[in-house]
Design brief:
By secondary structure, the protein is α+β, with helices and mostly antiparallel strands. Helix content is 58%, strand content 12%.
Length: 280
Amino acid sequence: MLVISIFRPFVFYVNESAEYIRTPFTYSYIVILVFYGIVFICTVFNSYIQIDNNYKTTALAALMVIMAIILRANNEQSNSDWLAISFALYITYEMYVNIHLRIDQKTGLLNSQAFSNVKSKIFYTTTFIVLDVNNLKRVNDTFGHKTGDAYLGIVGETILEVYGKIANCYRVGGDEFILFLKKGFHEKDGYNFNIHRTIKEKREEFDMKMENNKQKYEFLDEMSGVAQGYGLYIIKEERPDDYKGPLTIDEAIECADKMMYERKKEMKEIKTKELEEVRI
């Protein structure tokens, strides 16, 4: 719009007396800029809060935008609103960079650093889900690391597709993933909980989608799936008198790990039996 105004008086023009004249469309480009700026900031805010659970930084940037609006409303000749908006955008950019440092490049999920940062900030009842990719080393050795990375990417996509709406999803190791249900989910699910049924349904949905992926990717026929386990963490204030479950987040994850390894053993035995039947 500004470029067009050089040739046509669309947003502004300079008259014969060298006076800067604004047209009725003067603020149109500002409205568009602000609109896309708000969309960008809101997107980054949402991602940043999910990753770091930090409202202070996001509130500061939002305050700068509000201040800019107030400054412009009180004094149309003031340019300090641009300074406030610039500061807000700088804060947003810093958060944007921070987000990308906490994204796992192979899966698109959050990484172990992000999980370490958020783990100490979980003060609500939730369920931790541990997933472990079977035979990843064998895949890397047999088909190459490029295929192994593709396999991890498929697992990451499927995790996000199945669990993304109800859980925060992290890749915390070479073949290990940790998820925990979002705040308020247990209350919605009926507390102690239809959670076991929900996790079972999600696990079955995940396994079905991974099985369907075998039709698209031939190398997946060599895999024996992804083992899953889960552990319920109930905060002290909500524990029943006869509660004997995990007392800490680490204990809940350990419980999920134990269940996952039991499932991993079962899957390995099933795979071995299938191979023996094929040989016969």
